Amino acid sequence: MSELPENPATPAETEAAAAHPQRAIKSFVVRAGRMGSGQVKALAELGPKFVLPFTPGQRLDVAAVFGREAPLVLEIGFGMGDATAKIAQTLADHDFLGCEVHEPGVGALLKHIDEKQLGNIRILQHDAVEVLEQMIAPASLAGVHIFFPDPWHKKRHNKRRLIQPAFVAKLVKHIRPGGYLHCATDWEPYAQQMLEVLSAEPLLENTATGYAETPSYRPLTKFENRGIKLGHGVWDLVFRRKP
């Protein structure tokens, strides 16, 4: 039920990655995907307005980009953007910066932006780890969303999961005191790892006892609804940055 791109990595790509495990943290795995005509059109027409350039060493001027002062939420890996658009529509008083390297997903979110006439979303088609390091000021994010990241089911691949101590330690420094980190997964072993890693981070505190109730702003995805009908579970974790 995980919200994965349609074209998985080839065996050769997987083998090559496994041969070089000591690498910098990455928030993504590059997978090819076909672009629909609507996505191509959205990229061409809306990309210049809503897709921001990656500018290493230059902090993002959030107020200038969005044309207002509002709490900023970073979403890492928004997939095809359905949930992102719905959340941005629900939380209209927040601004959302989505990081996604999968180009069809970028095109799909741009279509949602156009259809819903959303002005509070901007996109960076770049690795979120580098965006954090180069463009996001410390203690500036009101929230971070990481929904259904690649679970890397096989045990030997677990080390490739995004939610690891080193990444969380890097991420939390960009969340302002009182801000939150919201993760969700449909793979229980990954949920258990998330709970362990987030609970061990000294700058975070759990807002629940264990897993959280799904916040009202997060809509159920088609993958969740399909899984629920099959009896699958979904686990939300909401942690707060300590003062």
UniProtKB/TrEMBL annotation:
GO CC field: tRNA methyltransferase complex
Record field: catalytic activity: guanosine(46) in tRNA + S-adenosyl-L-methionine = N(7)-methylguanosine(46) in tRNA + S-adenosyl-L-homocysteine
Enzyme Commission identifier(s): 2.1.1.33
Recorded GO MF terms: tRNA (guanine(46)-N7)-methyltransferase activity
Gene3D superfamilies: Vaccinia Virus protein VP39 (3.40.50.150)
Entry keyword Flavoprotein: no
HAMAP family per the UniProt record, alphabetical: tRNA_methyltr_TrmB (MF_01057)
Family that this chain belongs to: Belongs to the class I-like SAM-binding methyltransferase superfamily. TrmB family.
PANTHER family linked: 3-DEOXY-D-MANNO-OCTULOSONIC-ACID TRANSFERASE/TRNA GUANINE-N 7 - -METHYLTRANSFERASE, PENTACOTRIPEPTIDE-REPEAT REGION OF PRORP DOMAIN-CONTAINING PROTEIN
NCBIfam families xrefs: tRNA (guanosine(46)-N7)-methyltransferase TrmB
Name of the protein this chain belongs to: tRNA (guanine-N(7)-)-methyltransferase
Organism expressing this protein natively: Roseateles oligotrophus
Upper classification of the organism: Bacteria, Pseudomonadati, Pseudomonadota, Betaproteobacteria, Burkholderiales
